[in-house]
Amino acid sequence: MSTTTIVSAPGKVLAAGGYLVLDQQYPGVVISTSSRFYTVIQASSSSANEIVVRSPQFHQAEWRYTVTYNAAGIQVNPQEDSIGGKNKFVHLALQHTLNLVSEIHSVAQVQERLLHGLDIAAVGDNDFYSQRAQLESLGLPRTTKSLSQITPFCHNGVKLTDVHKTGMGSSAALITSLVSALLLHFAAITETDFANLEGDGRRLAHNAAQFVHCLAQGKVGSGFDVSSAVFGSQIYRRFGPTVLDPLMKGEFAPGTLKSVLNSSAWDYSFRPIQLPPLTRLVLADVEAGSDTPSLVGKVLKWRGHEDSRETAKDLWTQIDESNQSLARQLDALSQSYVQNKDVYEQIIRQLASLPAEEWESISKAFYDLHQTTQRIRNLMRRMGDLAGVEIEPEQQTHLLDRSIEQAGVVGGGVPGAGGYDAVWLLICSPPGLPDEQQPLRRVESVWSTFDESNVTPLLAQESVAKGARVVQLDEIPGLSEAVQRR
Questions:
Q1: Mind giving me the DSSP string for 326-383?
Q2: What pLDDT sits at residue 291?
Q3: Is the pTM of this model over 0.70?
């Protein structure tokens, strides 16, 4: 057995399908990001059956567990003196994944592989956490060039509970990488099977991560964030929540985990997609958070109310049609690149120097994509107005409008449930164009001078790797140093 297992899982952007994706009737367009979470599992020199989990990017972020065995299965017990206090996400991931391993193999297999204990380090790319304070301390402007100068997996200078997250799905990426790494380390799935997008091993990792994430959050969500962490960018349609009923209600009999997580009742679907070639996803961390659960609660209440039910149904149908148009247009543009790369590249070069309103005579396809993103924004704003929720608040509208009118910007929006804390853009990124002429520089200029909120770009682009994957310690810059940090 390899002494070290490392799995990385990407963050996400729900570009289309906010709110709708909660209903199995409606799919969402999810883009997985190049910014990733990493779980590094190594044998430790501690005592048998002890697991130490560390997050070396934070103060006092170490959690110690003792594993015991009885007739009810495997118990993962938090040690009272852990300096990190309680960590529900990590504890539940360990508890249920180790029991799943024992149901697939045996308790003896778990005992054997815990003979010398385990050291687990979990770290996330800098993008998962706001880097404003880092940039200020270094005296650097808020640009992607500045961000690339910050040490990878840098220490955030705070406790985990005090960090400002950027909304890229850190908990889903953490749980996906941790659960997958444990299943691989304990040989419950094979690396070959996990590497296959359609493999049973990857499917089991997905189902287990969905369960743990739902349990930690106390509810069965749509699961788009875990699905994109496992499978990459996709059109996602959620699973029926009843599949998890036997596991979400507390105690369950030994053997239940394996039967539920391997059940054919998991009826989610995903279709891999990608953004058009020679375009780039750009994300911004906006200094003002939103309480996603309260936004969602208000929208769902509005949707279910007898006075607004019909209006809501009509509006959701319109939004869904636009979301599915977006997906088809993304597919068609990728196809047109394959058919004639030279012509496609020439078009991107032209579009990069013009605002989208002037694109129709050059590329009807890209012009239509721009129009679709704008239509989705308008419909989502209308839903927000009707439900009394700031899905695209006024200052975000101003920021997006000023960004999208720049030459070379295809479109954008507020990701997921919306609110104040982030925006996404799709921009042209032609090769060989002088740096100062790149649309990214124009966007950064708008963001750096925007006076209604502090806007900081993120380094993330779309992930080229499809979802979760096994990596080696030395292939990720800065990972080895971060893991060794105590």
A1: HHHHHHHHHHHHHH-HHHHHHHHHHHTTS-GGG-TTT-HHHHHHHHHHHHHHHHHHHH
A2: 59
A3: yes
